[in-house]
Amino acid sequence: MNKDFVLRLVFGLMALVWPLVLTWNGYLHNSMQNNRDEVHGLRLELAQKYVTTDKMDKFIVRVERLLERLEERLDSK
Predict the structure, then answer these.
(1) Cα separation of 40 and 45, whole Å?
(2) Counting beta carbons within 10 angstroms of the beta carbon of residue 39, is it exposed (0 to 12), middle (13 to 18) or buried (19 or more)?
(3) Is the pTM of this model over 0.85?
(4) pLDDT value, residue 24
(5) pLDDT value for 51
(6) Can you say whether residue 49 is alpha, beta or left, with left for phi > 0 and alpha for psi between -120 and 50 degrees?
(7) Is 8 in a helix, a strand, or coil?
(8) At 43, phi and psi to the nearest 5?
(9) What angle, 0 to 180 degrees and rounded to 10, lies between the N-to-C axes of helices 53-76 and 3-49?
(10) Tens of pLDDT along 3-52?
């Protein structure tokens, strides 16, 4: 195959792929922000409902750990 043809093919494919990658990145960013907003709303709701702060603190720590693990998984991919 012609070297010029291969380069044009590679750059053509990159021109098709990069908008998809940027769109996917934006989607992931927005979904992470929405999840964080929901967690903050849940914290407020829990703070209003629970009398003891021990249960609430344990729950919040557990949710934060889950979110950190989710962020680590997304960052590693």
Answers:
(1) 9
(2) middle
(3) no
(4) 93
(5) 59
(6) alpha
(7) helix
(8) -60, -45
(9) 180
(10) 888 888 888 889 989 999 999 999 999 999 998 888 888 887 777 776 56
